Amino acid sequence: MSLLDQVGAIARERGAGKVTRIELRVGPLSGVEADLLRNAYPLAAAGTVAEDAELVIEDVTVVVRCSQCNAESDAKVNHLLCASCGDFRTTVISGDELILQSLELDELPPAA
Ligand SMILES: [Zn+2]
Q: Can you give the pTM of this predicted structure?
């Protein structure tokens, strides 16, 4: 799970012994299921600096920009049409991200 590698690297960089809270932004087009992530997390994090961290997942809506009328509109995952003119030639501008939004660290160094 590369996310935890990232979290661990940040904690090490800041000399923190523990991660207390992880906030993620997960778009429905990211290929990551928020529920699966929540379920898999405790097991994946066991034994790492993030094992006691609270995992907060913020859902992201899908937004597309239309190449024809240039409107930006919310879209459904399997239906990326322009809400304004109905054209299918759209570009996803939000909804495919998996972003580590913020991290709360316990700044105390690990107890030997
Ligand atoms: Zn349009």
A: 0.79
